[in-house]
Design a protein that fits this description.
Radius of gyration: 29 Å
Helix content: 55-70%
Shape: elongated
Oligomer: single chain
Strand content: under 5%
Number of strands: 2
Structural class: mainly alpha
């Protein structure tokens, strides 16, 4: 059941809430099960949960890609979605597509000499 919850995108905190336990208790039980599974040769809950999350992530990735590039569904055509394309590119190639570009400058910076300005006349009154 835990793996199915992971498949539907639930976080460990949400899974713990569903079972009515703390996140720390869930983590401890998953660790204990993982150790027992290693001894008995069966798949652990941790391994099943990781696999389920990988499947869910892959499905979302495919759906986002289809939205970004456009797709045909039966007789209907869905054109590319610019927002999905931007999201995809910013996450897949952040060096090229992020909004903020940083440029580092190295070397010595010399400031121009200070100018002494002399104003003729009486000094200002206080």
């Amino acid at each position: 059941m835990i793996a199915q919850l992971g498949l539907f995108g639930h976080t460990n905190r949400e899974i713990a809430q569903i079972f009515g336990i703390s996140e720390a208790t869930l983590a401890r039980r998953i660790r204990e099960d993982h150790a027992e599974a290693a001894k008995s040769g069966r798949e652990s809950v941790l391994t099943a949960l990781k696999k389920a999350r990988e499947v869910a992530d892959a499905e979302v990735t495919q759906a986002l890609f289809r939205r970004a590039t456009g797709f045909q569904l039966g007789k209907m055509y869905f054109p590319p979605d610019t927002t999905a394309a931007i999201f995809w590119l910013k996450n897949r190639q952040p060096e090229r597509w992020r909004d903020v570009h940083r440029t580092e400058v190295s070397g010595e910076v010399k400031a121009p000499p200070l100018l002494n300005i002399v104003i003729e006349g009486e000094p200002p009154k206080k």
